[in-house]
Specification:
Layout: E1 2-4, E2 18-21, H1 27-36, H2 45-57, H3 63-66, E3 67-71, E4 77-85, E5 95-102, H4 111-125, E6 130-133, H5 140-148, H6 160-171, H7 176-187
Parallel strand pairs: 5-6
Antiparallel strand pairs: 1-6, 2-3, 3-4, 4-5
Length: 190
């Protein structure tokens, strides 16, 4: 998904949540949140962590600088998001959001939308013109938050239009691509 410079929709965290930067001692909690969000693909948490962080480091990612945690009662991390400016040649200067996940106990409370608006505000304030975010089709509540923040589907790649048609249908949202096509057909008398 991609966001191009426009206003950032502001969402506030519910009053009993706090935001803080990721710290080295948060590693186990961070992995737990990845797993809760379906972001871990293997059963080897340590290998998954190392691979993920090293792959992202090639794009400019530094966990201690780029990751925030949302904490609930007692300071326990309940959600995480990472955002950074890419330093690779392919997307130099573009923002990149990754590792968005929340514990199931806080889903539906607005934590994800608030977290997203925090990092989007940071990207906007430093002048970022484009932000890229990769997600999976099954993460429908997260996708709805991304769409609400102004992210648009990337339709490049085989089958992407059909995948996004299904996502819009599963979310019960109007499909802008189909609406545009229908509007154009109406203009031409089809």
């Amino acid at each position: 998904m991609e966001w191009t410079r426009r206003n950032v929709r502001e969402y506030s965290l519910p009053h009993h949540f706090t935001v803080r930067p990721y710290r080295l001692e948060d590693r186990a909690a961070w992995i737990r949140l990845w797993r809760a969000g379906g972001l871990c693909l293997t059963d080897d948490d340590e290998a998954e962590y190392q691979t993920n962080v090293m792959d992202l480091a090639q794009l400019g990612f530094e966990p201690l600088r780029d990751t925030i945690l949302v904490c609930g009662g007692g300071g326990v991390p309940v959600a995480t998001i990472s955002a950074f400016i890419r330093t690779d040649e392919k997307e130099l200067g573009s923002g990149y959001i990754t590792q968005v996940s929340a514990d199931p106990s806080v889903r539906g409370m607005g934590v994800g939308s608030a977290m997203l608006s925090i990092v989007m505000r940071r990207m906007y304030d430093i002048g970022c013109e484009k932000v890229i975010l990769l997600t999976q089709d099954y993460r429908l509540p997260a996708i709805k938050s991304y769409l609400n923040q102004g992210f648009e589907p990337s339709l490049s790649g085989e089958g992407m239009a059909a995948r996004w048609d299904a996502i819009y249908q599963n979310l019960g949202l109007p499909n802008p691509r189909k609406n545009r096509a229908q509007s154009e057909n109406n203009e031409h008398g089809y």
